[in-house]
UniProtKB/TrEMBL annotation:
Location (main, coarse): membrane
Organism ancestry: Bacteria, Pseudomonadati, Campylobacterota, Epsilonproteobacteria, Campylobacterales
UniProtKB keywords: Cell membrane, Membrane, Protein transport, Translocation, Transmembrane, Transmembrane helix, Transport
Protein name per Swiss-Prot or TrEMBL: Protein-export membrane protein SecF
Residues annotated as domain Protein export membrane protein SecD/SecF C-terminal: 108-291
Protein species of origin: Helicobacter ganmani
Length: 323
């Protein structure tokens, strides 16, 4: 399917000047959110106990908090609505010390006078395990970015690699900022979403970079800005189709997947928009800002072809016994 049949070349480079400004604003705002209020660590990383309860009627939150405060081991518990007035989430700062202790049943017993309820979920993570998961999650994000930079450096030129990785950092930071803004706990689902976003975004960027490299070979006498505009215009239909497919899939998951999956669906929803936007307006613009030189690139390609031709001739002469 092609949305743009007349092969019109749009001036994306000019529009990307405004895009870079918008990206800087969103990036700085996200960094500010990192510092204050910062991430709310979920049970996966902070450790503790999480209990999800479902009532037959709207849950009396004030009464539930009062009941829990009467028990010393449950003081300081966070009680919040979870998706609907009938469902609540109870977060306890400490994990149960005994594997034989059924903390879900104990809490249900404490709250039996607050209404008819049933236990939907109980998650328990010790503080040591939570700290290890936090370190490994951060390490996974860093290794993913470093691996992608090495791969793109091998496939392209180092300026393309640096532009691609900076665009990925831009996508991850803004998506993570949305997690803080919408008050979603930082847990393994969020880390999984950010890693998935890295793969989605770099795929979009690589396709555009491939078309730029192909166009560079066909337009030897054109300037870099014209080459980028032509490459972006040629891939625009594909980018829109991919972005819309991704957006509506994740949007459906966000609307109907429930609260339990919002840690994954929200970052992906924001990332599907930001990732496509950065591939068009950020990554390509950064290549220009990094002073990529078309003349030097063509000279480098010509030298590589010349060396390959010389090696081929020497090999043919050797095979014919002339050396």
């Amino acid at each position: 399917m092609d949305f743009f049949k007349h092969k019109k070349i749009y001036d994306f480079v000019k529009m990307s000047s405004y895009g870079i400004v918008l990206s800087l604003i969103l990036f700085v705002v996200s960094l500010v959110l990192f510092m204050k209020p910062g991430f709310t660590l979920g049970v996966d990383f902070a450790g503790g106990t999480l209990i999800q309860l479902q009532y037959e009627s709207p849950a009396p939150l004030a009464e539930i908090r009062a009941k829990l405060d009467l028990v010393d081991s449950y003081k300081g518990a966070q009680v919040s609505e979870f998706g609907s007035p009938e469902e609540i989430l109870i977060k306890l700062p400490t994990a149960t010390s005994s594997v034989n202790q059924n903390i879900g049943e104990e809490v249900a017993e404490v709250l039996k006078d607050t209404g008819t309820l049933n236990i939907r979920r109980v998650d328990i993570v010790g503080p040591k395990v939570g700290s290890e998961l936090q370190e490994k999650g951060t390490l996974a994000l860093v290794l993913a970015l470093v691996s992608i930079m090495l791969y793109v450096s091998y496939r392209y030129e180092w300026r393309f690699a640096l532009a691609a990785v900076l665009a990925l950092v831009h996508d991850v930071v803004i998506s993570a900022g949305a997690v803080i803004l919408f008050d979603i706990d930082l847990n393994l689902e969020v880390i999984a979403a950010l890693l998935t976003l890295i793969g989605y975004s770099i795929n979009d960027t690589i396709i555009i970079f491939d078309r730029i490299r192909e166009t560079i070979g066909l337009r030897v006498n054109d300037g870099l800005e014209k080459v980028i505009n032509e490459a972006l215009s040629a891939t625009l239909s594909r980018t829109i189709l991919t972005s819309l497919t991704m957006f509506f899939s994740v949007f459906t998951l966000y609307l109907f997947g429930g609260e339990i999956i919002k840690g994954f669906s929200l970052p992906m929803l924001v990332g599907s928009i930001v990732g496509s936007y950065s591939s068009i307006f950020v990554a390509s613009k950064l290549v220009i800002l990094f002073k990529f030189d078309l003349k030097k690139y063509h000279q480098k390609v010509a030298d590589a072809e010349r060396r390959a031709l010389e090696k081929k001739k020497l090999r043919e002469m050797y095979e014919k016994g002339r050396i």
